[in-house]
From TrEMBL:
Keywords: Ribonucleoprotein, Ribosomal protein, RNA-binding, rRNA-binding. Belongs to the universal ribosomal protein uL10 family. Gene3D superfamilies: 3.30.70.1730, 6.10.250.290. Forms part of the ribosomal stalk, playing a central role in the interaction of the ribosome with GTP-bound translation factors. The gene is rplJ. Part of the ribosomal stalk of the 50S ribosomal subunit. The N-terminus interacts with L11 and the large rRNA to form the base of the stalk. The C-terminus forms an elongated spine to which L12 dimers bind in a sequential fashion forming a multimeric L10(L12)X complex. InterPro entries: Ribosomal_uL10, Ribosomal_uL10-like_sf, Ribosomal_uL10_bac, Ribosomal_uL10_bac_type, Ribosomal_uL10_CS_bac. This is Large ribosomal subunit protein uL10.
């Protein structure tokens, strides 16, 4: 892309978008053609506070993505494009977009960026199908607790066996002492 000078207001918009691209854990591009303002407001609310939904001009968004070091999105910048910058839980944001798109078919998920790499719309859907971070952490904690309990029982087993052996030896000595007397 030839870098031609841009006006100050556009340069500011590009700088803000570039910063959003850099700070977001993920970015999802959507086409919103045919959605009403109230539907877009509803979408923004459903995505939560850690996710922003921004309508941007394709040329400015393309330049901002390039400035942020992101490649592979150029073909997605066609038609009316909105950018979903996710700072929080990427899975929850992807679920929110997927669910809203099911209820409002005019919202089309084009693709996006996750961990610095371009992803397709199908990959965004796969992200939405994952369990949330909290659920995965809870499952991991449960598995770790089970493993720790098994380890504790394993470490306690030799001590318990030693105690039983000592008690058996003491009983045997008592019997032998009683028989000798």
């Amino acid at each position: 892309m030839a870098d031609k000078p841009i006006r100050a207001d556009k340069a500011t918009a590009v700088a803000e978008l570039t910063e959003s691209f850099r700070n977001a854990g993920a970015t999802v591009l959507t086409e919103y053609r045919g959605l009403t303002v109230s539907q877009l407001t509803q979408l923004r609310r459903s995505l939560g506070k850690e996710t922003s939904y921004t309508v941007a001009k394709n040329t400015l968004a393309k330049r901002a993505a390039s400035d942020a070091g992101i490649s592979g999105l150029d073909e997605l910048f066609s038609g009316p494009t909105a950018l979903t910058f996710v700072s929080g839980d990427v899975v929850e944001a992807a679920k929110g977009l997927r669910d809203f798109a099911k209820a409002n078919p005019k919202l089309v998920i084009k693709g996006g960026v996750f961990e610095g790499k371009a992803i397709s719309a199908a990959e965004v859907t796969k992200l939405a199908d994952l369990e949330s971070r909290e659920v995965l952490l809870a499952k991991m904690a449960g598995a770790m607790k089970g493993s720790l309990s098994k380890a504790a029982a394993l470490f306690q087993a030799p001590l318990a066996q030693t105690a039983r052996l000592a008690a058996a030896l003491a009983d045997k000595r008592e019997k032998e002492g009683a028989e000798a007397a």
